[in-house]
Structures are given as structure tokens and as C-alpha cells.
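Here is an idea for our session: we take a single protein and study its fold together. Which protein we use is up to you, so please pick one and set it down. Once you have written the record down, we can walk along the chain together:
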Amino acid sequence: MSETSNEKIQEVGRNIQEKAALVWSVADDLVGAFKPHEYGLVVLPMAVIKRFHDCLLPTHERVLAKYEEVKNLAVKEGFLRGASGYQFYNTSPFTFKTLVADPENIEDNFKAYLNGFSDNVLDILARMDFTSQINRMVEGGLLYQVISDFNSEKADFSPENVTAVDMGYIFENLVQRFSESYNEEAGAHFTSRDIIYLMCDLLVAGDRNAFEEDGISKTVYDMTMGTSQMLTCMEERLKALDSEADVDVFGQEFNPFTFGIAKADMLIRGGDPDNMQFGDTLSDDKFSGYEFDYIISNPPFGIPWKREENEVTAEHKQGAAGRFAPGLPAKSDGQMLFLLNGVAKLKENGRMAIIQNGSSLFTGDAGSGQSEIRRYLIENDWLDAIVQLPNDSFYNTGIATYVWLITKDKPEERAGKVQLIDASNCKVSRRKNIGNKRVDITTACRDLIVKLYGLYADGTFTETDENDGEITVKSKVLDAVTLGYNKITVESPELDENGEKVLKKGKPVADTKKRDTENVPLEEDIDAYFEREVLPYNPDAWIDRKKTKVGYEIPFTRTFYEYKQIEPAEDIAKRIEEHEKSLMSKLHELFEENE
């Protein structure tokens, strides 16, 4: 895969974008009848329908013939699927070509065509509420034109013309355009192929159990699958290693449009469409009790979980019987809930790559939900590594993002440690931006990151990219215990008007106005720290042991901070003096010229 992935990445900016732009141009016909943010309600379902149509076209006559043979049988699904060559079929005599040949009856004929699809396709269209959009197109006199647009030669979505992976990215691009026109929250972003390939390689590179005696046999799950491109690429990666790999993919999605596309993609690829489930992963888990070999996901961040609050809180109260026992994050951001969902679904030797933004590293004080989630991962020794991605890697956001690698089966040499990898300068600038995406993680970049992950060593490593540019990755392996601290509460005595300590039952009363806290590294003795850092400055202070809490944070920025020597003051003064002399000299010359 690494030999051809750069070309595939560039296709996202060329062929795929061009094809998606062609499909989106259909929106020009919708002006007036639909508002701009509603164009996707027509364009997305029509693209799905046309993909189904073009896949089924070669076996269309065979399906019609088989339907005549079995239409009176109680069970005919298997016969019709066999005739179509897919997990779906259409028994209508119409095609897009015959539909546009009869403009007078376009509404009745198109509805008859859609009703000819198998139930699994009708379910997709129902979730997209496509019937309502057909009626609106009819009212606006647009239905015939839209179908004609999709019947053009340029809109050929046959498997011979557009591969399954590329079709998935065309769908992804269309969803992105729809989301931008709808002004969705910044967290509802998409993951480009270069990032997905990096996540796939990191998952496989660290998997000691990737190859069994009979070859690769893996299950893969994405809890926020979108159009299922992470699952598709993970399957592609495993089959590049073993062409006979047995890979079963599973996913859940809450957006009816992206879910429809994911299920459509699964149908076309011949997988089990029941593995694609619709619903909110946090409040309506469709894979309760399942465990997977690999989990790969990019959940939304910066999105409140108030909608799921009742269900999530109830499951949290179940303790170990639920997914959210360790703690609940702030209601303003639910990304760490997805992290816990993934951990709950990992096999004992499973591995997860999940994207988080910077807040998961450090927000939340000791005892908070976020800190307790980090504590849960670190004290169970499941946090393997965190990789900082370059800024401007995503279509819809330019903020710092990180790939967390979680494993329940660390090798001995990694036990009790966490590797931090700063790959923020391992990137190649794009010639043409796609939204906020200004850089790519090319093959050379990805290989360096994966290589460093495998080396498991401290240091700064520099190589050249495909254009002879410099790419740099930094690595630091930390003892997990250094990520934790004891937050102690330091009390000082209350004094009366005479400056004497106020006592109660012979003990000094704490002055709440003077109460302070200190974070003591876990590996350091609390009393030794207190004697060294507090008592010399406050001899009467004491620690309220009942208030001590354990906290964890991941100081990514501080770990890779490089101190730069400040220029000596005399050098600065000398430089300013020289600048002033130069400026005065030019002013004198100017005045002399004007005399």
C-alpha cells in the first residue's frame, strides 16, 4: 500500500474532487426550489441511487428473467441476489436511460424504479427521507432534469470506472460540501486518506498478533464511521499484507446520510450490511457485548453530550457493567466518552487508534472525569503512545490533533511506559488546499513516524520527503508514573485579633482564605515534598490528608519544549544603538537633499 498511497492521496485532490464537483453541479438545477443548505438532501441520495444503478446494470436483464421465475415463491431473496451478483437487486424494468426517454411519466416511472429495489436499499432511502425530496422536485418541475444530469456519461459510477475506495471518497467529499453549506459545528470534520493510512499502519505495526498460523483474520470497528472510509482503508491495508485476509468490519453512525452511504458501500462490496448500524453510539450502543481486534475512529470533539446525558449517566452508575465507569467528562465535550466506548470493546489483545484534540491531554483537575479517564488508561497500562499530527491536516479544522494508540496487550519492553511522538513537522505542503487542509502526511512522512514508533527511543529524527524537503519527528518515552500527581490541600491556621492561633478541641482551625493546593509528582514522597517546598515558607501549615486526590495529565507541549537562549542584554542594546545611528544617518541625508 505504501508504494501507491501517495498517488491515491493526490487523487483526492484531482479525480475524486472533479467527480464530486460534477455531481454537486446538479445543485445548479435546484436553485429556487431548495435552499443552498438543502442541496445535499437531493444530491447525496441521487449519488447513492446512481451507484447502485451502475453496479446492477450489467446483470439487469438476468435479474428480470430470474424475477419472472421466482416472483410467486415465498422466499426469493437468495435467487435474486445470486442473479444480481450483489447483496441487493432491483426488479424494476426501468433504467436511467429508459427513465429519461419518457419525460411525461418521469414521476411515476422513477417511483416504480425505486420501489423495485430490495428492502436493504429501501431502508437506506427511507432514512434519507428521499420521498419528500422527490415530491419537492416534482413540485418544482426539477425531477426530470436531475435524473437527466445523473444519466450523463460523466456521471458513470460503474465499478469499472470508479473503484469502491474512490467512490467512498467521492461520497465523503459530497458529504463535506453538504456539511459546509449547512454550517455544521467545527467538530463534525472528515478524515483524509493520508491520516487514515497512518492510523492503519500504526495499528498493524505494533500488533504482535497480526498474523496467525492461517493468515490474517481480524474484526475492525469504527464507532463514528461516517461514510465508513476508515473501515475500508483498514480492510485494504490488511489485504495488502495478506490477499486472503479474512476481515469483518463493523460500524455505527448517527447521521442518516452518511449512514446510508456506509451501508450502500457495504452492500456493493459484498459485506454484511447488518454490520452497519444506525444510532447514537453513546446513548444507543448497537454493539453492546462485542469485542474487536482493531478499533479505528475519529469521533467529534468540542461537541456537547447533553442530548445523551440521561443514558450516559445511567450507564455510568452501572459501574463496571457499563462503558463509562471510570468517569464522565465535562458536558461541553464528549470525545473522551468515545474513548471509553472503544476501550470497553477491545479484545484482550486488541488495539485502538482514535483521534482526540488537545483537551483530552490535560483538561480536568485531579478527581475530575477527564483526569479519572486518563488515570484509568494509564494505571491499567493500556495507553501505548500518542502521536501529534501536523496542524492543518483536516478539511474542516486547523487545530492540533493527536492519535491515541491504546492496547491491552503491551509487549514487555513497553510495560509501564508511554511514548509521545511529535510529528507536527512531518508534513508536505499541498499545492492546492482543500478547505483547511493545507498539508499531507505522505508516504515518506508516514514511514518515518511508524519507524520511530517501532524504534521506541528518545530523540529527534530527520529525513527527506519525496520532494527532498526536510521532515522531522521527535520521540520521548516516559515512565507512566511521571504522568500522575497527588494534589494535596495545604491548610494554614486562622488567627485571632491578637495574632494567636484559633483552636478547636486543641487543634488549630484552618483559615479557608489561606487554603492552597500543591501538585506533588506521584514518584515523590508527599511528606518530603511538603517539608522542602512548603514548610520553609509557612512553618505552621499542614496537609489535610482527606482532601488528597490523584490526577493525571499528559504534558505533551512541555515534554518537547526546547529552551532557546535569550540574547544578552548588551548585545540587544548594541544592536538598537546601531539601528538608531543608521536611522539618523538616513534622516540627515534626506534633510540635506531637501535643502
The chain has four domains: 5-180, 182-417, 483-556, 567-595.
